[in-house]
Design a protein that fits this description.
489 residues, alpha+beta, FAD/NAD(P)-binding domain, 7-stranded mixed beta sheet, 6-stranded mixed beta sheet, disordered C terminus
Length: 489
Amino acid sequence: MSAPRQPLRRVVVAGSGPLGILAAIALRRALPGCEVVVVGEAPGPAAFADHAASAMPFTNKLHDRLGIAEADLVRRAGGSYRLVTRLAGWGGVGHEGLLAYGETLPSVLKTAFARNWGRVRLPGEGAPSAFSLAAVLAEAGRFAPPPPGEPTPISAVDYALRWNPAAYRDLLIEVAAGLGVIHVPVHPEGIAPGAGDEIAAIRLAGGDLIAADLFIDCSGPAAQLIAAHPRFAFIDWSASLPTRHVYLAAPGAPRLALEDRLSLGAAGWLSAVAGRDGTHLMLGTAAPLSRAAAEAQLGSRATGMVNLTPGRVQAPWLGNVLALGDAAARFEPLGPLHLDLAHRQLALLIELLPGRPICAHERAEYNRRSVLMMEGVHEVLALHFAAPAAAAVFGARPLPGRAAEVIDQFTRRGRIPFREEMPLLGQEQFALLAALGWAPGLPPAALATAAPGEAAARAAFEAEARAALAFAPPYEAWLASVLGAGVRV
């Protein structure tokens, strides 16, 4: 008969950026009797998860679980909302598409979308309707988060949040301090080996040691703990992901919008994340640019450049050291995938929370699922660079994992094969591929001029869209009312 294990006595988190602080909050809530210590300062600008100004819908659920109120993010951290991401130029000059979150279409409307995609359109005629309530609301500039637990015409619309990174970190620090998380603002300089595969302590600048049962590496791409482990190994993604230089810009003018933009140009890709504190711009290129050339592409003053070698750790949990976010995987910041990956890894850690001693099967299951998460991000990123126009900018690249199968099934049959732990749902992958310029195919049974029930499904969607527009208030006016008179939005 097995005896219950003892809970962890102390956990040390290396890195006091937003990810490290949120990890400390999660561990403290999951283990109220455990001492949680955050060591070091916030990672530098190459830690894209820590400097992210936006997240994906999964983060909303994680915040709720950890007691980070959405209202506080809006009022105290410069929060705003995103419904869609507009992708421009990936399918060729003038091509645009929208990526929305969480929407599931009836198969008859997906078939109608695919059929209309291939139809010859007159000059000036837009792309076929993606049948997205989020897109309808974003185009009209109308939205407010639906009240929880109450059915409304927009309850099915999933959304993401943005914020000011510094204000977001300050809010998390306040929550962590209220939970009794300890902060030691001293830089880790190495590890002290322990028994077997574990480490006994981390060595701080000055020579002090801090021991723990579990160490969480949130130190960004420096990976100060996991990279010092004797069994550390790195898997290079350079063959399939071409971005080598990421240029950062000073935030531009504040912009209230329900969409962000991800554009492809002759030099590389340009990300524009709208925000109340300014528009956050990043440029990714394969070849280095002069400062003047980078600023011409950004349309703003460049504040820094990150050299990038994409890849992931072979195993993110070694012994009693576990890496999250940029310490586990490094890749180009095409959208908010860095923070989404880090938060999904954190949620997995809490799900599989170990005791003393740590069991090998817990590590194995975490590593299995976390590697699937990282490789899922790898595949989604590779789809961008395989897009029709991107291949001309960045050159042809081999496709990782099942990405080639996904493109084949989408273009021939209009379907998305299932894969575990992907960052996007099947319908979201469908929307992404269409936004990147691929035309969805049709199964033989759907090649008729109009599928049965298509007219009724269209009418039902149009009725849902009218109800959503009537229910949702003008976004800017609603946000101003939430923040109060005299508060700049």
